[in-house]
Amino acid sequence: MVSPISEPVFACNGTCPICEGPRRFESRFSWLRDNFRCEGCQSLPRERALMSVMAQAFPNWRDLAIHESSPGSALASKIWRECSGYTPSAYDLSTPFGSVNPKTGCRTEDLERQTFANESFDLVITQDVFEHLFDPWAAAREIARTLKPGGAHIFTVPIVRKWEPTRLRAERVGDGVIHILEPEYHADPFNREAGALVTIDWGYDIAASLDRVSGMQTIIIQIDDLSLGIRAEFIEVLLSRKPF
To answer: Which CA distances in Å does 131 have to 81, 104, 121, 128, 226?
Structure first.
């Protein structure tokens, strides 16, 4: 990573969708996706974009039943604090599936094989999770199963193959992993030392690919709005609705 300089390379003032108040946004790196932070909540552009979409599509989100897989952000903290129907989960082998880890407050779930009952949630949120799953199609089916009719999966995933189709980077075979491409890892709030293996490079065909197996209808939303502190690469928000 390039070392930061003393003064921000990019900054602006606006209204943070997470703080819900006037804030300054700045970055000391040219790579805004992971560095263009709100001075108040320290949120990143993709979090602010997701919050903006959720607030517009579901203005009553505080009254809904929400499941978020792999929380660990300013957005997750806001929803956990303000929504009584919020259920965070993480893949945590130290705790039996379906149980809550008393240290983290997160329920242990495998997103591809969940223990939740059918039609448990109004909303499911995932932030930069689907590029780390070995079977994202199974996860999409499970999310559709656990959503109530008319509910939605709102999520971010870096669409890095802008002009090319999705490609696999790694596959799970038995208890092992076969690397199709050179291994790549992203930061993981639940496993900071090892990081999270990137298993798939998504293209814009992600919507059709997931919809074929889940029966949901997905749109891809691109936001560039400095009045909300939203600007960066790979911060598309996807909204998949389950039909009534």
So the answer is: 27, 24, 23, 7, 27
Q: What percent of the chain has pLDDT over 70?
A: 95
Give the C-alpha separation, 180 to 194, whole Å.
Answer: 19
Can you read off the two tokens belonging to residue 85? 């129907």
Distance spanning both ends of the chain, measured CA to CA: 46
Question: Token pair 């897989």 is at which residue?
Answer: 69
Tell me the CATH architecture of domain 44-241: 3-Layer(aba) Sandwich (3.40)
Closest of 46, 15, 30 to residue 221, by C-alpha: 46
117-149 pLDDT, tens digit per residue, is 999 999 999 999 999 999 999 999 999 999 999
Tokens (6 digits) for 211:
């919809």
CA distance 235 to 231: 8
pLDDT bin (cut points 50, 70, 90) of residue 1 is: low
Residue pLDDT, tens place only, 146-196: 999 999 999 999 999 999 999 999 999 988 999 999 999 988 766 667 689
- The H or E element spanning position 139 is helix 136-146
Amino acid at 189: P
CA atoms of 62 and 86, how far apart (whole Å): 9
